[in-house]
Design goal:
homotrimer, 496 residues, alpha/beta, Rossmann fold, 20 helices, 8 strands, disordered N terminus, disordered C terminus, copper (chains A, B, C), oxidoreductase (chains A, B, C), NAD(P)-bd_dom_sf (chains A, B, C), ion transport (chains A, B, C), ferric-chelate reductase (NADPH) activity (chains A, B, C)
Chain lengths: 496, 496, 496
């Protein structure tokens, strides 16, 4: 960077531009000034001076890091003489004096105390103000902190940045989830100046555009898996409900009707009934909204009509629904694979072999059972393999490497194939249990039958959508065609 | 951003630059004008006006999204009075009038209709034209749509962008595979202006350089796993061929020669023969081209000679070959682990125990068998673990975090270790089957022997390359050394 | 970058800026000049000319790629007439002449030969010098190559770039671990000019800030998993130590005391003892430093005091410790799941069934054993599932998608849950072995007991930290509060 005539701009990232402009004024000795200038540039320049308002924890952490990265730091404080220990090598001044000395000011002050900054408006005019603040809760204030700051000091260029980092990362540099600095602001130059500092501190910068994105950035560090809540609640609800259903039908039924205590089956057998059932239900919940949306579009004859809110929200958490289902399917696989090393299973097999020996009967090998069993396992394995593929392609870096057409092919085509394989796997499990009266203990259907309802519905509806006549119409609607219906004037309003 | 004196530039992302330039004219009050300017900047500015040519589906979707993101939108249409419903709050004008009112124009028109834009050249001079078009097929036209547009209107700055997004994403914002906006164009300022809009719409921008990249961007949404086709075809071909081979040797042989129906074994036993065999073959196909390339370089005595096309193409799909092989190895693991819960296996074990009892024989524990079996499983598990490690490091985000040396260490050193472990695992499976005549039913070798050919070749060739004298020469060639051969003048031509 | 008088600079990405500046001089016909300029820009421009110093391997590879990407290339060489074959279509000149003809110069020369460049200082003034060099070892020189180059030619703008790519990637374009070009330099304009070229060559650019980052970039290609070394050494050391411990207690004990040869158990049984034990120890090593750090902060009464070096280094490799532990846990899972298909296990089960038959005894089903066994497997499966979740969230792209709070929730809350589940799993394995004298062969405790020490310590310490009074104080300290201790003046010094 050049040594700009006006020191104030040195950190704004367009010092060189300034040099260009200055030389443009004197066209006669342009080349001279050009040649001389880079010379200065290369000479070890005095480190840039940055200003921090606030000597609290955040200010201290940030200041220490800035010092370590080769900046000079000056603090602005209400009580410059009694503000507690600060990183060695920094200066403390009044706010006004500190602001005057640097062109970038980090505001490490709570939003509640922003008001006093208004009095510094003259000193802050033309400065880059970096708002690093966060709130304790969402929607505490009507406007974002950074927007409030910009309103207070319209003459400054407010940039929202660094607020998504932990104080630890601010002090010690990037680590794990603290590698990216999101920033936004109305001035591209101010954004770039802050981006440069963030890069020098070792962070990767993501420019999120104008200051209207500040609210989003301020909400980011407060969020705790917002889009995972609904799917997790659905999962927990279904697991609890099915656990009790299976507990009653298996353990309590055995106790009451047969007088046997098989409560030890809770740990593995019951878990291995509940997990796959909930997994299959959630997998179909993942594909159901898409089918509903298609029918809604067909019914309405337009794609421009907004979906009802519940459907919108449902569609937005499909990925999470699917991933929770995949996690449960994974547990199901492990629970299934440990079956033969369980004490209970080994005991039963030995007992059955001994019995077979004692009764001296020769069991016939049943080829149909072998076919059924092996097909059951094979569809399960293939279904789980496909499911895993869906999961891998939903990793952010894999998704980003795919074109939209490729992503759609996997999540839609291969997704329905997964639903089919997993449903078929469950039907094969059922096999002859559907017609056997002993399946219906206390007149209730076995739990696996409950899990078949939704995926069967999804597959039937999807097959309907694949009928050529339906498919053709849907394709036209999705290409923008609308059914013109003279009586229906709701169409226009939704474009609002 | 300000409303600059020259409205045309307002969206080009250098409004502030303009302010600086203006102030450069009046050096006396520079500081004043600079200080005053940001003041305007901060004042809530009138939303920027963007122009959209075309009122079709794409234009409507994009317009709606731009409105929601705080832009004002004006449509340019051939028939401004009868162009169907448009998002509320937008205006429709003639193309000429619309173009005049904004500095960025989104061309949401099919390439077939670009020609009429030529008549608007005067109005579009100096504007940023965003080409969002896609074609239905690759190579439909001799030049990219965006380059064609640039040729039609040389006075405008054409930026190719947004074409990789689905219409849904354009209307509703980023989701899954629609998070990144690729753009390219000859003017850095125009690119940045479009990047700014894309960022405000919530997308992440990837600048792909000059307009010569437009063809690539236009081909992107049409592609459906181009680099996966060859590996998948190889996999399907091998699976089919080996399935029939195993089917004949196992099921049909048993039927014909022994009169037994073991067709039920198709579902699991046969699958669990075919998958690991194809997996091992494909894993060695993944390392074979590297070895061939090394021998070719040794033979030619230079690294500057281009490889034959088939070798080039083969080397480019090594990653995909390896990942398909990993998928098959994963299926092999699952098929193996469910063995003990299969009806057929449980039946056979019980029968054998009963038989053992009846004949009152005491089987001797065979330590050699125990060693062989356990080594077989252990090498399999370790090989699969290493294979999985190779797979994980080929995830884009993991690969990006590695230095070239690290990536090479894993994919090459650990890769050959994986080949060794998996091949050794298969040899241990063979064990004494190689010399047993009963292995060669109908005079054909067992399928697993077929799978050993390629990996053995790869390992032998690799060992040759590791010989110090060969290795030294290869290293020199790869550092740029060339064997000077007076008769060989093909060397120079390949540098062309 | 400075003001170029000379058209030569038009390709540096601010040709249009120049147009604006020029128009600023003549305010009367601004619009005209602005309108004319883009016209030229758009007209198919002559390809930009780039200069490469050095005709070695790197220079040739880079030159070939630049040519293919549409640049013109001129080489600077000491002996322009006898410098060996170069890509067809390029020119070779003296260094001085070549430097004069282009504005960007790639220095493909070994650092040892940089000195001669000093004589070219006048010709290189104002040029962008791209330093692509690497050293053979770290810390070979007191300053980074690029900084040395900048010192030699202060009038040029040195940009460090392309050095992290393999020569293969420089010649053939991006592939796998060669997709990103890291660059750094003191001039934002020079950086951008180089970034533009890198983008055109197909790479993704990551700007790492000022030239002070050059050392880091030069060290990058030399590194071979530096942060994995300590964890891998710990893992190998623990595996070796425990292997011998288990070997002595199991195999040698059986040989010496019982006269039985069970050495075949090494391959699976011993591995499946060592791997889970080391995995659990390393998992607790992953959470131990965090607990120690908290107690240290409590003891010191401040968070501003730097941790001892050993603790710092330990904390920095927690992620790697955890991932190695996960890998071992994965092997443990596979080794466990193949248990029932092992020859040894099948033999033993058959023998036990036969024995049971012979002795005509009826074994009673032990419900307590069933509970214990099933709980043992269930906690193991759940623990492994949680562990896998921790592993997935540490994939870079997943970590980046999480807010700091979310990452913390998973790695801390769910992490301690994982430690608890895995420790409980091991206690369930122990069950009644703790009190059984036969467990203590040769008066040594079983290996699994050793693995329980550390996780138990971690959990007890963590529970102490969760006590409300301790937790409150720790929270205050982490918010910046410091215990004021008149005798303790070490506090200030650490802020240095």
């Amino acid at each position: 960077m050049t040594t700009p005539t006006n020191e104030r701009h040195s950190s704004l990232g367009f010092g060189n531009l300034w040099a260009v402009v200055m030389s443009a004024e004197k066209p006669k000795n342009t080349s001279e000034s050009v040649l001389l200038h880079p010379l200065d540039t290369a000479a070890a320049p005095e480190p840039e001076l940055l200003c921090i308002f606030g000597t609290g924890d955040l200010g201290r952490s940030l200041g220490q890091r800035l010092l370590q990265s080769g900046y000079r730091v000056v603090y602005g404080s209400r009580r410059p003489t009694s503000c507690g220990p600060l990183p060695q090598g920094t200066q403390v001044m009044s706010h006004a004096a500190a602001a005057q000395s640097a062109s970038v000011v980090f505001v490490c002050v709570h939003r509640e105390n922003y008001e006093f900054l208004e009095t510094l408006a003259p000193q802050l005019r033309g400065k880059v103000l970096v708002d690093v603040s966060n709130n304790l809760k969402k929607n505490l204030y009507p406007e974002a902190n950074a927007e409030y700051l910009q309103r207070l000091i319209p003459g400054a260029q407010v940039v929202k940045a660094f607020n998504t980092l932990s104080a630890w990362a601010l002090q010690n540099g990037p680590s794990d989830a603290n590698r990216q600095v999101f920033l936004c602001g109305n001035s591209a130059e101010a954004n770039q100046a802050v981006a440069k500092t963030a890069t020098k501190l070792g962070f990767t910068v993501l420019d999120r555009g104008s200051l209207s994105a500040a609210r989003e950035l301020e909400d980011f560090p407060l969020q705790l898996f917002p889009e995972w809540r609904l799917p997790l609640r659905v999962a927990v609800g279904l697991i609890a409900a099915l656990f009790f259903y299976v507990l009653i039908r298996d353990v309590i039924y055995a106790k009451v009707e047969l007088g046997k205590d098989i409560s030890f089956r809770i740990m593995v057998s019951l878990a291995n009934k509940v997990f796959p059932i909930v997994s299959l239900i959630m997998l179909s919940l993942c594909y159901l909204p898409g089918v509903i949306a298609a029918f809604l579009q067909l019914y309405r004859g337009t794609k421009y009509k907004r979906f009802p809110d519940w459907l919108d929200r449902w569609m937005l958490c499909r990925k999470q629904l699917g991933l929770v289902a995949l996690g449960l399917a994974f547990l199901h696989v492990l629970y299934t694979l440990i079956i033969p090393i369980r004490y209970y299973v080994k005991f039963r097999i030995a007992a059955s072999t001994v019995l077979q020996m004692k009764e001296n009967q020769t069991k016939e090998f049943n080829t149909v059972w072998a076919w059924q069993g092996d097909s059951f396992y094979s569809t399960g394995i293939l279904g789980f393999g496909m499911f895993l593929l869906l999961g891998i392609t939903s990793l952010p870096s894999v998704t980003n490497a795919l074109s939209w057409r490729e992503f759609n092919f996997i999540q839609s085509k291969l997704g329905y194939l997964t639903v089919f394989l997993c449903t078929f796997h469950t039907y094969l499990y059922g096999w002859n249990k559907f017609l056997r009266p002993s399946s219906y203990k206390w007149n209730t259907p076995p739990a696996f039958m409950l899990s078949l309802v939704l995926p069967t519905v999804v597959m039937v509806l999807k097959l309907l959508l694949l009928l050529p006549c339906v498919d053709r119409r849907l394709t036209r609607i999705r290409q923008g065609w609308e059914r013109t219906d003279p009586k229906d004037d709701s169409r226009k309003s939704l474009l609002a």
